[in-house]
Amino acid sequence: METIRISGVPELACDLVGDGPPVVFLHGIGGNRTNWARQQLALQDEFSTMAWDARGYGDSADVPGERRFTHFADDLVRLLDQQNIEKAHLVGLSMGARILLTFFPVHAERVATLTLCDCFYGFNAMSDEKRRDFMALREKPLREGKTFADLAPALVESLVSPDCPPEIAAELFDSIVLLRVEPYLKTLMATTAFDALATMDEINVPVQLIFGEHDRLSPPSIGEEMVELIADARLTVLEGAGHLSNLERPAQFNDTLRSFLAQRATLASYRERL
């Protein structure tokens, strides 16, 4: 696996592995690029895979000022351009899916397919209770001076399934502890303003939805709503998985993703080199 730097402001870290049509992975609000390592290795014989650290995450730089999902979308254009990608298969989990739902209406011509995992299409798609719980578990403690090490046990418990393997829970814990407070809080505030409902019917590429059976943050019922809103969408619910379905059930996740992409591999392409 090769780690490269995407130049510009901010500079972004990105892991590359494999050869073939391009697939780009976008992590969730509590994650980083390493969360996709199992998927990248599973696809490496058929696809060129890329997983980034979003701005303010992992080894990517941050930028002062407010945060909007359009900023992440701009960063994704920069990644595609610097990797000479004309169209990519785009895979996003939770926050990563929100970035893709922001990206598509403006840059549809750069999208071959979308895989949207364990996500919601607008903050208001969550119940009032879930929205309150979402913020209470994340924002309030950090503003009161708690660290991510303090928050991690409760966050992990809220995100995984009842039967989550201990090593996966530990991996998620380590991912959360690495977060930086200010970028996280800015992204959290951007999430409260996120609403892609009005543009869902504009999505005209094949879409694979993947939800964990035990995802309490974005339950499969939201995926069922999204199937009705998107013209060419299919939903797969992974048994025994929570919000981080790619980590908890990697074999099932990888089989679903590989099957979806294999039938549509040639929709993604690189630009012709002059």
Short description:
41% of the residues lie in helices and 19% in strands. By secondary structure, the chain is an alpha/beta fold. Helix 1 packs across helix 10 (250-262), helix 4 (128-143) packs antiparallel against helix 5 (148-159) and helix 5 packs across helix 6.
Task: Look at the structure and give the mean pLDDT.
Answer: 94
CATH architecture label name: 3-Layer(aba) Sandwich
Count of structural domains: 1
How many DSSP helices? 10
Q: Structural class, judged by helices and strands?
A: alpha/beta
Spatial gap, N to C terminus: 27 Å
**General shape:** globular
CA gyration radius, whole angstroms: 17 Å
Biggest pleated-sheet summary: 9 strands, mixed
Portion of residues in beta strands equals 15-25%
Helix share, percent: 40-55%
Number of strands: 9
Tell me the CATH superfamily.
Alpha/Beta hydrolase fold, catalytic domain
* String of helices and strands: EEEHEHEHEHHHHEHEHHE
CATH topology: Rossmann fold
Query: Poorly predicted ranges (pLDDT <50, ≥5 residues)?
Result: none
CATH class: Alpha Beta
